[in-house]
Amino acid sequence: MQTKNPLEFFRTLPPKQCSECGDQITEQAESYLMECDHCLSKREDY
């Protein structure tokens, strides 16, 4: 089994999509959010 370069692995990941609306999420380091800022702002259960 060939080991892939870790940097290449992360570069080839598809962009994360919001689980609510399907829009692409602009990720920041160490972000585990599954919704975009717009959908998060509509939520009332913080």
Discrete helix count? 2
Range of helix content: 25-40%
Q: Span between N and C termini?
A: 44 Å
Give the biggest beta sheet.
none
What is the gyration radius calculated from CA atoms?
14 Å
pLDDT < 50 stretches: none
Q: What is the overall silhouette? A: elongated
How large is the share of residues in beta strands? under 5%
Q: Which helices and strands, and how do they pair?
A:
Blueprint: H1 6-11, H2 37-42
Protein name: YhfH family protein
Organism: Peribacillus butanolivorans
Pfam families: YhfH
Descriptive terms for the model:
46 residues; mainly alpha; 2 helices
Notes on the structure:
- The chain is mostly helical and 46 residues long.
- The protein is built from two helices and no strands.
- The longest helix is centred in the N-terminal third of the chain and has 6 residues.
- The radius of gyration is 14 Å and the shape is elongated.
- 0% of the residues are buried.
- It holds the Pfam family YhfH.
- This is YhfH family protein.
Task: Please summarize what this structure is.
The chain is mostly helical and 46 residues long. Helices cover 26% and strands 0% of the residues.
